[in-house]
Amino acid sequence: MSPSPLNLAPGTTPRLELRNARKNFGAVRALENGTLTLWPGEVHALLGENGAGKSTLVKILAGVHQPDGGELRVDGQPRQFARPSDAIDAGIAVIYQEPTLFPELSIAENIYMGRQPLDRFGRIRAETMQHAVQEMLASLGVNLQATQSVRGLSIADQQVVEIAKALSLNANVLIMDEPTAALSRPEVERLFAIAERLRAANVAILFITHRLEEVFRLAQRITIMRDGAAVHFAETHEMTHDSIVSRMVGRDLASYYPKAEVEPGEIALAVRRLTRRGVFKDISFTVRRGEIVALAGLVGAGRSEVARAIFGVDPVDSGDVQIKGKSLLLGDPAAAVRAGLALVPEDRRQQGLALDMSIAHNAALTVLKRLVHWGLISNQSERNLAQDWGRKLKLKAHSMDVPASTLSGGNQQKVVLGKWLATHPDVLIIDEPTRGIDVGAKAEVYQTLTELVKNGMAVLMISSELPEVLGMADRILVMNEGRLTADIPRAQADEARIMAAALGQSDPHSRSAA
Amino acid sequence: MKATHALPLARSAQRKTSAGDAAAMRWFIFLGRHRETTLVAVLLALIVATSLASPHFLNIQNARDVLLNVAIIAMLTAGMTVVMLMRHIDLSISSTVGLTAYSIGALFVAHPQMPIAVAVLAGVAMGAVAGSINGALVTFGRVPSLVATLSTLYIFRGIDYAWVHGGQINATSLPAAFQMIASGSVLGVPYLVVLALVVLAVTGYYLKHFRGGREFYAIGSNPEAANLAGIQVDRRVFKGFVISGALAGLAGVLWLARFGTVDASTAKGIELQVVAAAVVGSVAITGGIGNVWGATLGALLLGVINLSLVVLKVSPFWQLAIQGALIVLAIATDTLLARAIARWTMKKRDHGDD
């Protein structure tokens, strides 16, 4: 089946082969046909929407889950992993999306946990261990101490610790599950350099990401998954951005940004000279009904802070906000909701959802008052409300009673969106609407936003994704270091102009901000 | 396309902390790393203050009493430390102590010639069985340890009551040699205390220097990561509860040797004293942090506070409240200190100071 690998001597066996792996969780079919071949010395990208079965496949390779069927071979030998230590012994190291470290313990202990070097009395040789780790950290070019505790390390440094762990295992298969999601560009470069070095040393690397440009840079071959099955396999150079995305979604992406022409109506949100000392200054803009206004800029420019101040979560020093012509009492989120404002926050896990609560409970949180009968909240009306919004937003869930934590990122985002739409807002502020969600769910979120403005809502969309900004916004506001530096109409917007404004260069074409 | 992530915003100029600030912080860090130092300081201050306030405080008899009482509690605290490191708790230990103490007493009544070593081993074995019941409930039964050990707290005690029926074992039924464990001494230190010190040292050494010991920390620090690191979490948790139970069994034997008289309500309620001692000794209830040395100091500090309140003739009605307040004080200080350190490390990271 698999095409001849790149630059391999004839007779080379694949490092890892998974065929027709299946895995059910109760009635849920998480993986139907997990098939993957990894050759030594290749970077192999595993692509697919969230919920396509990538994580399940990875966890089977890591020995966390035991497949219900299928075949696994390591270096040609059939293997079965009963537990994670079996996979580790087989030379498979996994770097998960969220670092899996022990915050209270030292870097050295984190790396060698479970397989510390021992002396003849069975005692841990702490110095040997620290020495080895210190050398490893030095070879990775990072300035960390083997004895310092992991608590307080940045995500990037934690990932370096994970990589060091993989290196110390002498792993010949390295699996990286969205390692770049939380990294800045230089950190990504550092990671890629390490990956390239390992590949050159004949390690097989499986790389999962949502950033396709990384795939084209790093991967030789691609496996695409959809709905629990491997649906496409190819060499990277045979594929294009669009052909990958359409295989992932299983349909054509002509309507990826379903931007509709809407005649802007009256001014729904007017912000005047809003200032919070040291954070942002003199922010003035308006959003009309039927308009999507994007707020672009670098991370840290103060965009989310402006949104939080408008909504009343953060304090302001001066300035005012009007909703539909009426002044809003600042610093009081409840007043903001009454005035018709809704805020979908950036970090849905921390700020948007009560993860352990059911979908129904989450969806009803904003409108509990409306659901009260005789002083009690009716579960049925909560469920009805959630179902109603679930249908409109194409929420994929077994029941409205399962905890929100069991949903994929895209579906969680839909619950948060539904929760706020249930308040029937006039103005929706949405912060990074598609962060960490897959292509299909993104398209659905865009579709929803388009519907909302058609029905007369005003949308302020904070986004760091330039394609999204260019694809969806009627007008683009750009912030730099706490100030508004540009207000660009859709027709005149391009990447270069937005980036220039985000970097604080003056924009001669821009109208001075309202 | 993702260039927006590329450039970190360097808005604020790098700010250097002043030298005085740094010195203060070094102190914080030192105290954070060696939290036991603060405990020793508090302990010494308490001893000095009480002995200045009352001439009846510092004497051999008091020291002996405190050591004998604390030795048993400290052993239980070591077991509790193992369990708490894994983010679990074992409330059943007081019932295990009571049940073993009575059982071994009954054994002596039936077989007065039983060798002491056999008695000690039988107690440890009984405790281990009790611990393995807890361990099985928590690992195979997936019962949260708070609930599981609360149930066995009642079950073990209930068995004790049903069996003993208001009877009691008296010191006269015990061999003199057995009672020597508490009354005899070497160089003025009671055997019981020496034995406890050995047990504490072994437990502490094991936790620090052996793979199994470190795995308790790993499990409490991040159970999911422990599993992914290839640790057999259930097996290790089970062993942790067996250790706690075995130490409770040993404590039961020693309790019998020390007090001679035991009945069905022996050692009732001491589980909370033990949890308090561990917490005061900087063993985190959230797992992953703590050691036997700190826990022992915690037990010692509570024991000395107890005696001080008696010597200072504080009304017994107030003693409990004062103990409680001191525990809160100890924990609040600890938390605030930990937060100050966290803030400082964050700041250091963000500004790149060093």
From TrEMBL, chain A:
Pfam families (alphabetical): ABC_tran (PF00005)
EC id: 3.6.3.17
Tree of life domain: Bacteria
Record keyword Translocase present: yes
Any one Gene Ontology molecular-function term assigned to this protein's record: ATP binding
UniProt-annotated location(s): Cell membrane
UniProt entry tagged with the keyword Transcription: no
Ranges of residues in domain ABC transporter: 16-252, 262-506
Membrane protein topology class: Peripheral membrane protein
EC class (word): hydrolase
Gene Ontology cellular-component annotations: plasma membrane
Keywords: ATP-binding, Cell membrane, Hydrolase, Membrane, Nucleotide-binding, Repeat, Sugar transport, Translocase, Transport
Location, primary (coarse class): membrane
Name of the featured protein: Ribose import ATP-binding protein RbsA
TrEMBL record, chain B:
Keywords noted in UniProt: Cell inner membrane, Cell membrane, Membrane, Transmembrane, Transmembrane helix, Transport
Topology in membrane: Multi-pass membrane protein
Keyword Cell inner membrane: yes
Record bears the keyword Cell membrane: yes
InterPro entries according to UniProt: ABC_transp_permease
Transmembrane segment boundaries: 39-59, 66-85, 116-140, 188-207, 237-257, 269-285, 292-311, 317-338
One Gene Ontology cellular component: plasma membrane
Major localisation: membrane
Intracellular or extracellular location(s): Cell membrane
GO molecular function: transmembrane transporter activity
Domain of life, per lineage: Bacteria
Function as written in the Swiss-Prot or TrEMBL entry: Part of the ABC transporter complex LsrABCD involved in autoinducer 2 (AI-2) import. Probably responsible for the translocation of the substrate across the membrane.
Subunit note: The complex is composed of two ATP-binding proteins (LsrA), two transmembrane proteins (LsrC and LsrD) and a solute-binding protein (LsrB).
Name this protein carries in UniProt: Autoinducer 2 import system permease protein LsrC
